[in-house]
Amino acid sequence: MRLNMNEEGREEEEEMIQGRFSIGEGGGFQKPMKLVVVGYALTSKKTKSFLQPKLERLARNKGISFVAIDQNRSLSEQGPFDIVLHKLSGKEWRQILEDYRQTHPEVTVLDPPDAIQHVHNRQSMLQDVADLNLSNSYGKVGVPKQLVVKRDASSIPDAVTKAGLKLPLVAKPLVVDGSAKSHELSLAYDQYSLQKLEPPLVLQEFVNHGGVLFKVYIVGEAIKVVRRFSLPDVTKRELSKNAGVFRFPRVSCAAASADDADLDPCVAELPPRPLLERLARELRRRLGLRLFNLDIIREHGTRDRFYVIDINYFPGYGKMPEYEHIFTDFLLSLAESNYKRLSGSNG
């Protein structure tokens, strides 16, 4: 696929045969001389939230074309693509993508299906954070103590006691499948109410965090942090008075933005940038993903004790400030590095 050229563009067309990118004076890349074709396979809801007109407009100006993938046709017969962007579920789709990756190594698939599966399960999702055990002069990042319950709700109270978990406990569905239900939370205040929960699920110790969480969006090497309102702190008095299970819909939606709220500075202060950069770098490598976000909380009463409580693949980037510029720059950098890689292997 290439740009329509008038007669004045003949020289550019010849240059296009020799190389795909014009290099800026500073050594960076400018607008590609050939369209970067991004095939996308997204749900209709995801397409609407992500492929907003402002993103498509900016992409066109930068030489990027988004092309819808027809799921009823062979992937190899479509394109040619430089990048495949996807967020669909199902074993069949994963196999199609995996086969396509093997037969089309020149195409960048965002992201590998097996790596995505890893964060679709809350049992494995946070394991890399726990293994990392990140601690430096800027703070410490861990995960809340948690327990996986796959069946038999009646056994939960004993399992919780045996695991040494303290109430209250946050209950989350074990599998993250993109549905609204997979993002619903329950807060269990007492031992008896644990039997009312519905496995399979993950139980996490609730950490008081001032009612604010930090959504850390990662797009390749770019990091953007926004504040969101979260569950309020639970005092010992409330814990002794309350009983039962309280259900919450999706907690940290964009409507709950806390960026402009008048918050206690101790609660509102963003996690230190160097800490987030190291965490993102390590998790990109361990998870094998380039498009994800982290839900991070700071333990209330501390300045430097952080917990990752969730990881989401290809989150709602449309809610992220300046996402159009960040995402298009990322796609161009991918296409450029891919072109260099292929040039090197052909040289």
TrEMBL record:
Recorded GO MF terms: ATP binding; inositol-1,3,4-trisphosphate 5-kinase activity; inositol-1,3,4-trisphosphate 6-kinase activity; inositol-3,4,5,6-tetrakisphosphate 1-kinase activity; magnesium ion binding
Keyword ATP-binding set for record: yes
Alphabetically ordered keywords of this record: ATP-binding, Kinase, Magnesium, Metal-binding, Nucleotide-binding, Transferase
Binding site for Mg(2+) 2: 310, 312
Amino acids binding 1D-myo-inositol 1,3,4-trisphosphate: 46, 87, 183, 215, 312, 316
InterPro entries: ATP-grasp (IPR011761), Inositol_tetrakis-P_1-kinase (IPR008656), InsP(3)kin_ATP-grasp (IPR040464), ITPK1_N (IPR041429)
Gene Ontology BP, a term: response to wounding
Known EC number: 2.7.1.134
Residue numbers binding ATP: 122, 172, 204-215, 230
Domain ATP-grasp per the UniProt entry, residue ranges: 133-343
Record note on cofactor: Binds 2 magnesium ions per subunit.
Keyword Kinase: yes
Top-level taxonomic group: Eukaryota
Binding residues annotated for Mg(2+) 1, in chain numbering: 295, 310
Catalysed conversion reaction: 1D-myo-inositol 3,4,5,6-tetrakisphosphate + ATP = 1D-myo-inositol 1,3,4,5,6-pentakisphosphate + ADP + H(+)
Annotated signal peptide: none
Cofactor: Mg(2+)
Family membership noted in the UniProt record: Belongs to the ITPK1 family.
Function: Kinase that can phosphorylate various inositol polyphosphate such as Ins(3,4,5,6)P4 or Ins(1,3,4)P3.
Subunit structure: Monomer.
Protein name stated in the entry: Inositol-tetrakisphosphate 1-kinase
Naturally occurring in which organism (per UniProt): Vitis vinifera
